[in-house]
Design a protein that fits this description.
The chain contains six helices and eight strands. By secondary structure, the protein is an alpha/beta fold. The strands form two sheets. Strands 2-1-4-3 form a four-stranded mixed β-sheet. It has a four-stranded mixed β-sheet with strand order 5-6-8-7. Strand 7 and strand 8 form a beta hairpin. The longest helix is centred in the middle third of the chain and has 18 residues. It is rod-shaped. It starts with 8 loop residues before the first strand and ends with a helix.
Length: 193
């Protein structure tokens, strides 16, 4: 920039982009002083080097503002994890589904893991059925990003929020309906089924 340019002759470009031709460095500096602009080397490896007249302070300021604006638009996506078992009860499943729904509405991705123990690993269809049920229940607010996949003793599925869900989630989060109270013991409820 300005006095730091070491070349004897340079290709000079005006602030509006007009090429002024090849000039001696002192002549180019005079052009810059008359226009009250800085000379900035934009292509030092060219033969002769290319120099542009510009307000360098304003240029740096605009670049910094553009970088800040890009940072503001950047979206941080967190991956939250929910773990389930293949023999999960309905109430526990509904609770976990509520957690997944809250994460999706918050704009986070959700990694749903089903952990198999012992002989359960011989029945991966149960785990896949459970994951599909969860995906169907949350179809309005989330989509499957990674299909259910068996990885050792775990089956993993990743869900991502739909764009509409994030906008609705900002407005108001719906409250889950309370479940009806159960009466009687476990055996009585089993006998009624």
């Amino acid at each position: 920039m300005n006095g730091q340019i070491r070349a004897r002759s340079v290709r000079l470009i005006a602030a509006d982009g007009e090429q002024l031709g090849i000039k001696h460095i002192k002549e180019a500096m005079d052009y810059g002083e008359r226009a009250d602009l800085d000379l900035v080397e934009v292509a030092p490896n060219a033969n002769p080097p290319v120099v542009r007249m510009m307000d360098y302070g304003k240029f740096k300021y605009q670049k910094e503002q553009a970088r800040k604006a890009a940072r503001k638009k950047q979206v941080n996506v967190n991956v939250r994890e929910i773990k389930l078992r293949p023999k999960i009860g309905d109430h526990d499943f509904n609770t976990k589904r509520g957690h997944v729904e809250r994460f999706l509405r918050g704009g986070d991705k959700v990694k749903v893991t089903i952990m198999f123990r012992g002989r359960e690993v011989q029945h991966p269809a149960l785990g896949e059925k459970l994951l599909r049920r969860l995906a169907e229940d949350l179809d309005e607010i989330g989509r499957i990003e990674s299909q259910p996949n068996l990885d050792g003793r775990n089956m993993i599925m990743v869900m991502a929020p739909k764009k509409v869900a994030r906008e609705e989630g900002d407005a108001e989060e719906p409250q889950p309906e309370p479940e009806p109270q159960r009466s009687g013991s476990r055996r009585e409820r089993a006998a009624r089924r």
